[in-house]
Amino acid sequence: MISQWLPLDYVTGKSIKLTDMIKSENLGPDGFDLNLVFRKAKRKVIGNIGTEVITGTNSWQRIVATGVILADTAHLQITAVLNDAGTAWLDDVRVSITDEN
Fold it and tell me: Which of 42, 53, 56, 58 shows a CA-CA span of 20 to 30 A to 71?
């Protein structure tokens, strides 16, 4: 698992979007996914938005997860998780926050 933490202040109710390019080789049935994990100030998980699970062998493709930032979110944890055997390459990972819902 690869993980990145970001502080989130004053963004409750705003839209969030996670995008990335992924290429995979021989990923098992549990595959690979990206997640946005919303956490309170003491890091307790209060919500999660994930991408579709990628399995098998695939050329480069864009995957996306979108949602709304939950009330009481103080931290955002972005996780990239290889849940099974195989290899995954990531590129151009982006997180954007907007006022649009």
Answer: 53
